[in-house]
Amino acid sequence: MTDDCDECRGARPGSPYGAETRSLDDLLEVLADQRRRCLLAYLLDRDAAAASFEDVTDGVLAELERRGDGRPKREVIAADLRHRHLPRLADVGVLEYDSRSRTIRVHGHERLERLYEQIRPLEAE
Prior knowledge:
Blueprint: H1 4-9, H2 24-31, H3 34-44, E1 50-52, H4 53-66, H5 74-92, E2 95-98, E3 103-106, H6 110-123
Antiparallel strand pairs: 1-3, 2-3
Helix pairs in contact: 3-4, 4-5
């Protein structure tokens, strides 16, 4: 069964984790959110392909604090990650989140990662 929305975005039909062929607009929308960028920074700076939800939450909190965004409540960040950011990154194929084991497996996404590396220095300005 093909998802019409995936077809509009340029996803390959039947792809379980999204597609490398997402439109530029889709990828920019993913990167438009600071917390998703913090999540990407944490995931891309690790060598391991898997991480626990708790470690990712702590990593995003540390990244937000490092960027001068204060230290939001852990529960707020955890809920935001679980319900908004992890599903969005899973939708474009960057990762898979298993809510039962609370494990995040990073698949990578070459186009999104290249785009992110281009805008990453701008956040330091």
